[in-house]
Amino acid sequence: MAKSYSSLKSVLAELLPLHRTIVSDDMDKALEIVGAYLPDAAEYTLETYAPGAPIWTWRVPERYVVHEAYLETEGGERVVDFADNPLHIISYSLPVDKVLTWDELEPHLRYSEKRPTAIPWEFKYYERDWGFCLTKETFDRLPRAERYRAVIRSEFVTDPEQGLRVGTGVVHPEGGPVNASGEMIVQAHTCHPMQANDDLAGVVTAIEVARRLAEDPLPPGSMSVRFWFGPETIGTIAYLAHNEDLIPNLRGGIFLEMTGNKNKLAWHHSRQHDHLLDRIAQYVLRDTEHEERDFAAAPANDERVINGPGVNVPCISLNRWPYDEYHTTDDNLDIMHEDMLVEAADVAEEIIRIFASNYVPRRTFRGPVFLSGHDLWVDWREDWALNRAIEKIMMRFEGRHSIFEIAEEVGLDYWKTREYIEEFRAKGFIVPQPIPSEAHTA
Ligand SMILES: [Zn+2]
């Protein structure tokens, strides 16, 4: 049974303290916690990819283990300690144990000029070096005449069993999966150690959406919805490179991140820019104060993979960027708001419900349908707008318009239009055709 929760913020708080670097023991723990909250119906599974394995033009990084790390004055005063906060070292720092002068040490220190009391988060996953991150205040008061001992006992594990992990769960529509309808993918990354908004916020928002779709499933024949959790960019590349057969089936994606801070929601277009998914996002957000931005405008994330070269699945992203605490220890529970997390889930859920339940109705009839003879007549006294739209709707069953586009053109609500078109379907006057894929196959 999926674990229950009292608030999204409480799930976030459980994940927060973990040292979740891209491939690490705490990342595994985080992925297990995520799985515990996902609905049982999603059949959450973990996949592991061996370090060093080629994944398209990349390779899977090693597992990163930190036994201890600290900076001491030669007199033995510990000024920075990884045990206090995992942000104190540059992620994927090389091992070091050296005594250094200030001039030798300084190039290895990072602090934030803009937020002098926060520790910045830095990472060097591939062009490795070593370094410490500290508050500007600590940096300023370190004696320049002292010599310092820098110790990082880190290890890069290449055991194939301890490779990069990602977790996925799929929520199907009522009646089970329909292969021809394809899938939507919802992604959130789990890899920023000890930070809340970027991107545990996206993670808990996605969990909430998955639970809602399991509790109140999409109508029969809809797309299935795949929920994906793992390390940013490299995780998505590893996953897709190992599951290329999934790509042609993906019809659209939503990347969720930074959904918990007090800021208005921003949505980013797909690379296609005017795809159905873009228009659905616009439609869902029509009465919500929001920002609208270009594809991967900033910050750019996994949508560059999903919607990138050789994959090309239209993917939008939802976030509340920008915020000043970004990539520092100030990105913590203090700036997380339950109502913001929930609002983002509401919006994502509605975009998914429309996109995944949308289809292209194709007529089987000739001539205008004898409406009253088939109980399809809508009295203008009961529904003026729908009555006025019937003829226009019927003219759009040629296999070129999806329900959403028909609703858009006749100016009606999506769900109302869908409900009416479903009556034509029930009589056998239209057959549903799936939303075509735009995925690249190579
Ligand atoms: Zn980030």
Give the arrangement of secondary structure elements.
Layout: H1 8-15, H2 25-37, E1 45-49, E2 54-55, E3 58-59, E4 63-73, E5 78-81, E6 96-101, H3 102-105, E7 109-110, E8 132-133, H4 136-141, E9 147-157, E10 164-171, E11 183-189, H5 197-215, E12 224-230, H6 234-242, E13 250-256, E14 265-268, H7 276-284, E15 290-293, H8 303-306, E16 315-319, H9 338-357, E17 360-363, H10 384-394, H11 403-410, H12 414-426, E18 430-433
Parallel strand pairs: 7-8, 11-12, 11-13, 13-16, 14-15
Antiparallel strand pairs: 1-10, 2-3, 4-5, 4-9, 6-9, 10-12, 14-16, 17-18
Helix pairs in contact: 1-5, 5-9, 7-9, 11-12
The structure holds zinc ion.
The site of zinc ion (ZN) has 3 residues, from loops.
What this model shows, in words?
The structure is a single chain. With 442 residues, this protein is of the alpha/beta class. It folds into three domains: 8-60 and 161-357, Aminopeptidase (3-Layer(aba) Sandwich), CATH 3.40.630; 66-157, Domain of unknown function DUF2172 (Glucose Oxidase, domain 1, 3-Layer(bba) Sandwich), CATH 3.50.30; 360-433. 28% of the residues lie in helices and 21% in strands. It is built from twelve helices and 18 strands. The protein has helices at 8-15, 25-37, 102-105, 136-141, 197-215, 234-242, 276-284, 303-306, 338-357, 384-394, 403-410, 414-426; strands at residues 45-49, 54-55, 58-59, 63-73, 78-81, 96-101, 109-110, 132-133, 147-157, 164-171, 183-189, 224-230, 250-256, 265-268, 290-293, 315-319, 360-363, 430-433. The chain has an eight-stranded mixed β-sheet with strand order 1-10-12-11-13-16-14-15, with helices on both faces. Strands 5-4-9-6 form a four-stranded antiparallel β-sheet. β2 (54-55) and β3 (58-59) form a beta hairpin. The longest helix has 20 residues, at 338-357. It starts with 7 loop residues before the first helix and ends in a 9-residue tail after the last strand. The model has no long low-confidence stretch (mean pLDDT 97). It binds zinc ion. Residues 192, 198, 327 line the site of zinc ion.
